[in-house]
Structure formats: C-alpha cells, structure tokens
Amino acid sequence: xxxxxxxxxxxxxxxxxxxxxxxxxxxxxxxxxxxxxxxxxxxxxxxxxxxxxxxxxxxxxxxxxxxxxxxxxxxxxxxxxxxxxxxxxxxxxxxxxxxxxxxxxxxxxxxxxxxxxxxxxxxxxxxxxxxxxxxxxxxxxxxxxxxxxxxxxxxxxxxxxxxxxxxxxxxxxxxxxxxxxxxxxxxxxxxxxxxxxxxxxxxxxxxxxxxxxxxxxxxxxxxxxxxxxxxxxxxxxxxxxxxxxxxxxxxxxxxxxxxxxxxxxxxxxxxxxxxxxxxxxxxxxxxxxxxxxxxxxxxxxxxxxxxxxxxxxxxxxxxxxxxxxxxxxxxxxxxxxxxxxxxxxxxxxxxxxxxxxxxxxxxxxxxxxxxxxxxxxxxxxxxxxxxxxxxxxxxxxxxxxxxxxxxxxxxxxxxxxxxxxxxxxxxxxxxxxxxxxxxxxxxxxxxxxxxxxxxxxxxxxxxxxxxxxxxxxxxxxxxxxxxxxxxxxxxxxxxxxxxxxxxxxxxxxxxxxxxxxxxxxxxxxxxxxxxxxxxxxxxxxxxxxxxxxxxxxxxxxxxxxxxxxxxxxxxxxxxxxxxxxxxxxxxxxxxxxxxxxxxxxxxxxxxxxxxxxxxxxxxxxxxxxxxxxxxxxxxxxxxxxxxxxxxxxxxxxxxxxxxxxxxxxxxxxxxxxxxxxxxxxxxxxxxxxxxxxxxxxxxxxxxxxxxxxxx
Length: 711
Hints:
This protein is of the alpha+beta class and 711 residues long. 18% of the residues lie in helices and 35% in strands. The longest helix has 25 residues, at 539-563. The relative contact order is 0.09.
C-alpha cells in the first residue's frame, strides 16, 4: 500500500473578516483566488491584515485499498489556523513554514466543504512578539506595514496512507575512508501493532552517473511512533562538496518497509558530507574551508511566488561572486531554495525564525517549531548550521537611535531572557535531534570576557552611529580580535539601480515624506545623510553615491577580515544579498535581480586569489609620510603562482612608484604581507594605488584604491 495524495491547489474562495468568531454563514462577500498564494496578492485584499476564511468544495473518492486513513496536510499556512470539514471542527495550530497533518477520516465524504480560518496579525508590541515568523513580522529590511504574508502559501493536500507508515527519515555521514562511507539512518515510523517486517534502502545517483546501491534486512517493530535507527556502509560513494572545492554529488534515497501485504515507502534527495566548526573555523569532509558569502532574505515578500527557477538564478549570482555560503536570515524560506542550494554546492546557515525580542509564553511553541524545522530540512546537505535566534536584543526601530534606546540595547547584550533561557533550551532540543551540524544559540552574541563566550559578530561601523565611523572598526579588531572569529553582518544601505528606483521614487526627493519612505520602502535617510552628500535630493546622483559608498565600505570590511583569515577569522557574510521587496536597503542585488555596483565590488573582494591594501586613512595630507600595508591571500586548495604589480599614480595619472612581486601562494594560506609601501603625496588631488594580480591562464585582477589628498 503506497501513500496516495490529492492536491487541492487551484481555485479557492476567500472571505476577509474583522474578528475570529467561527465559520462565516453568509454566502456573499467571497472572492476567488488560485492557491497556493498570499491573500494580499488578490486585488480586493491587497491591504488586508488579520483574518481570512478559505473555502474549498471538492469531491473525494477513496483509493481502492483497505486500511487507509485520510489526513489533511497543510504544507504552509501563514500563520495561525483553525480547520472545519463538513461542519466538524478538525483542529487548530500555528507555524508558517512546516507541513502539519490532521486526521479527517471520520469527517471525509464523497462531497466536501473545507473551511480554514487563517490569522496573520500585525505584531503590536515589537518587544513582546508572539508569532514565530522572524523577519516577516519585524525587520528593517522588509516592510511589515506594506506586506502581510498571511494565507495558504504552500499546497493543501489530502493524504491517504496505511496505518503502517514512514513519517520521515534523517541521515548523516558519520565516517568515510578510501573504501566505504558509514551512514547513520533514523527512520520515523508509525506502527499500529508489533510486527516483523522487511526493510530496503536504495541509494541512486541523482546528479551524476553511477549504479544504485541496495540494502535490505529484517526488523522487529514494536507498536507506536518512534525513530528506528540503523547504520549502513556504502562501498562506493561520492561526497557532497561546495562548488569551490568539488562537485555537490546528490543521491535519491528510498526507504521501504514491508509487513505482510502492507508496504510503505519514503523518498528524498540528499548528499553525503561531514561538517565541523572548530572555534568557528569550518571543516567540510575534513578539509578546512574559508567561508565567504552573504545574508539571504526571503526570496520574495510574497514567498509563495518563489519557484525553483528563481531560486536557481539567486544561487548562480552567489556562485559567480565566489560565495560558498548564504545565511537564511531569521526565516525559513520556500522549499525551492534548499534544493537549489544542494544542487549549486552552496552552504546554508539556517536561522530559526526568531528576530529580536519575544514574549516568554512562546517558549513551548518555539521548542516544537524548532524541532519541526530540523525534521523538515535535515536531509539537505547544504544546511550546516542551525542558529536559533537572531540578535535577541532590545531593538524596536533601527532607523532612529535615541540615547535611551541605545542604552537599553547595550544592556541587553549582558542580560536577555530570550537568549539566556529560551535560547539555551532551543539549543538542547535541536542538538538532541541533530548532532551532525553546528548549533548556535544566537547570532550577534558578543564575546565579553568573564560573561559571554560569544558567537558571530555583527558590525555596522560606518552606518549606525551606535557603532561610529568605519575607521573605528580598526580599533575594535585590534582590541577584541576574538570577536572576529566569524562575522555575519556588515554593510550600508544603497538605492537600487536607477531604472528600478524610478518605479517607486521621483527624480527629485525634496519635500518627500521620509517617514513614509522608511515604513514602506525602508529608506533610513538620516543615517544615509551621515555618510554621503544627500544635499541635492536628486535620485540619479543619490543612486551613484550610495552604491559607491556601500561598495567601498564592504571592501573595507572584507580587506580586514581576509587579513585576519584563520587569525582568528573563519569567514564572513555581508548584509545582505538581495531584496524581498522594492526598496532602499543593504542589498547588493536589487529586488529585480539587477546587480548593484556593490555586487561587482564584493565579487572582486571575494576572489579566491586576492591582493589588497589596509589603507590607514580616508584622506591624506600633502607632504606627510604614510605607509600602505599590502597583502595577498589564496583561498584555493592548491598552490598558485602569481605576479603582483604595484603602481602608485599621481593625480595626473603618472606613476610615482612601480614594483612587481613574484611568489607562490600556498594552498588555502593566510594573508601574506608584501611589505609597507611608502606614500608621501607631493600635491593635492586624487592619488590612486593600483594592485594587479596576474596568474597563467587567468584574467588579471585589478584592485584600485583612491587616496584623496587635501588639507
């Protein structure tokens, strides 16, 4: 007996209501929408927030198999919901990103009316949130005032299955050598009564050529619902690698249980790899790996609109920029993203959807949902980190920074119930379920000697005044190098490319409603005005100036972090990759998937072989002596012979100094010093340091630094 699924996707009826007081009786006021979708995608509900009733009338013919039970499976409901089928209450739950099943065997008929009440509220208290929706409820890079994700955003199905069934299976590679790979398998089964059965597991190559491998045996199964554990040894195997280390080999795995005439099967696509972080330095399949990447927001504010094709495009942009990791920032994304990352060979740091502060009463629900996240996504080899909370700090509105709010945020660095109590319990729950990945209590947790051991760093020197100007980061890295072990946020806002900015902004921004632009389009005008000249209020120069500043700031951070490679820095992820909505944000690729100037600059700075300068100042004085430290680094896992040409150009373009270095860079080496270049400008103007890295068969890498000289 196999599982039989009836997909209820297609036309549904929707009816918005003001309060949640039971199924709506009237026949009027209903709208039709093709599902899955978010209700705000319907023109009549484009601004609706709160509650919507969904109605579906459908026929059902039971499969011609005895002993089946029938279950309503909601693959993704945003966020709380209650279910009625043919006038009977079926159940209620919450949680937007994982499938939830309800037994409807007793209520199901040949002709049916299904009603689902869905509630997606606005969080009124941002410091006491009650919905586990992460960035969808409260974030400065997605407008919860403009977008509400409420609705049936993934398919609704009727699943008919035998009493004996497989709910899921969890896999991980425990060890490997030249002759075989050892795989630990946990199969979550539902067994109606104790029995002896036969099991079979098949590993079939999914994206490479090879023969399938079959394993089988007998097993005694007690009654109940539990995890059955077994170990397999594959004599022939291929490992899953990131795209910069090798090929991301994937297997299609099928598990079958047979008891008498009953048969049940479960299938997934997975990969074989080991993962470890030693003091935030990564090891993939035992090989040290320097991590470079970005933060990935929801692929779209309308998450239902994501497709495998759109996810594939995003992963290609990441690969082209030499990224080997994306952080799924404070949310769980569309299922298409995870399959695309597996195929692309890009690692994922997966956040649980907790962002800033929550009410204490959500703890039981957070524990349940965190484990559901692990069970649902466990088979994806790309996911290597579970992070249970992003910045459990006192954060309300990041666009303004009054002193009292800053002090409260600073105090929450030391004490936070969300981090210290809830976060610690979430770590225990997830670690018990999955011991094959790194589990992090909270992102942005600072190392404070004698108080906190710290996790990854978030640094906004050069944007938020609570951090200060970018040059203060140089002091920070010298005083607190342990806080550089892994950095997962840094950056600044910029406007999208001009042709796209004009779709929601005028050419002249004078007289604009800045509060509206912040709430609807995310623009932090007062902060941007600290760092670039916004006086003209003209859109075209603002696009150019903001993208130039963003690109320069990101290179500034990357240069310093690559200088600290493995001393102690294990990697970095900028903030952020793309946009979920049209707006002005920290992204390096805008909502229309058009790369900004900062994307190209970041791509250059992430090059596997990279030459750079730790420029000491933003401006220089004529006649004064400076020293420019120049370094080169190699992230490839083989030695590289390189030639590096250093040119110092005066404002008139004439070379004042030229030299060339020839050297062999060791595999995956730390930053190598090329010495201190003397710089004593003789005139005012824009001097330039031009660094050119050449190697046989490769395009030259040119990294140029402007050196403004003036009094």
